[in-house]
Amino acid sequence: MADRDASGDPHHITHLDQLNALFGAVGEASLRKEVPVVHPAYRQWIEASPFAMLATSGPGGLDASPRGDPAGFVVVRDEKTLLLPERRGNNRIDSLRNIVADPRVALLFLIPGVGETLRVNGRARISIEPALLQRFVMQGQAPKCVLEIEVDTVFFQCARAMQRSGLWKAVKMRPAGVPTAGALLQALTDAGIDGEQYDRELPTRQRATLY
Questions:
Q1: Is the residue at 110 inside a domain?
Q2: How many domains does the chain have?
Q3: Residue 41 CB: number of other CB atoms within 10 A?
Q4: Where is each Pyridoxamine 5'-phosphate oxidase N-terminal domain found (predicted)?
């Protein structure tokens, strides 16, 4: 029986051993897909994405907000650094307020028609360097600032959530040049995982484990 939490409810999980027992062991692919740099395969992914969610934390609480521009709007400066332009918005600047207090950030990249998503965890700082702002001019307008994000970890998320939600049902084709889950794993493991076999078996495995 689960331990009771402060409210006395025996159905609340309050310890890591309970949580681990509930979900079981982590698969090899799920462990090996996480790397501390922007691997070239992940760079392809980021450069093909027109949309990301930015999560931050600060004294006022948590924030998750969307960011978007034409594909490639987040620039991979090097394997440890991403550049994210901050465009004009509603001036709430919840994310930026949080970053001033706590630099930790998380990004979730989406590509229309692709079930997998890409996750980046790191630390951000806010730059108003003129040359950097000029690099991101769109329709004659520079961003208000640019986030320089030092990457801690990068990994992709499986497609089950997208499949359950049917989010991309109207999108019929995967965009050219976006690596598949198998291709990502093969590149990240130096062919330790057979990408073609992984992709071939993935639809059946996902259907069997969707819920």
A1: yes
A2: 1
A3: 19
A4: 39-158
What tokens were used for 18?
């309970």
Residue 162 domain flag: yes
Q: Are 66 and 52 in contact (CB under 8 A)?
A: yes
Facing residues of 81 across strands? 78, 150
Which domain CATH number covers 183? 2.30.110.10
* Any domain includes 1: no
> Residue 2 pLDDT more than 60?
no
DSSP E strands, 117-203: 117-127, 145-157
Read off the pLDDT of residues 155-193 as tens digits, 9 standing for 90 and up: 999 999 999 999 998 877 788 888 999 999 999 999 999
pLDDT digits 0-9 by tens, 27-55: 899 999 999 999 999 999 999 999 999 99
Q: Output the CA angle 17-123-32, nearest 5 degrees.
A: 50
Q: Which domain holds residue 82?
A: 31-208
What's the pTM value of the predicted model, to 2 decimals? 0.89
pLDDT of 78 over the 90 cut = yes
